[in-house]
Amino acid sequence: MDIITDKTQFLLQNDAVKKSAAPKELKKACQQFESIFINYLLQKMRETVPKNGFFEQGLSFDIVQSMHDQALAEELSKSGNLGLAEQIYSQMSKYV
After folding, report:
1. Which pLDDT value is given to residue 30?
2. pTM for the full model?
């Protein structure tokens, strides 16, 4: 009988841990979504800028620029200034 009690306690504790971790995971997912969205916005905004002939721009330039945009998007998302992650979290946290 002691084994059943131990397993029941373990399952209850595990369920409590999952429920306490869910909001943290949701917040992280919302922040990641905001980062992806900002990165997409940066890509689309760069497409509107005409390319000039002052600097030679090749594949390596595109890769570095893409990496820069990704890092910038992550930092902007972490700062929370856009507020998109907070809005998504407030809407989705009702279901967690």
Report:
1. 92
2. 0.71
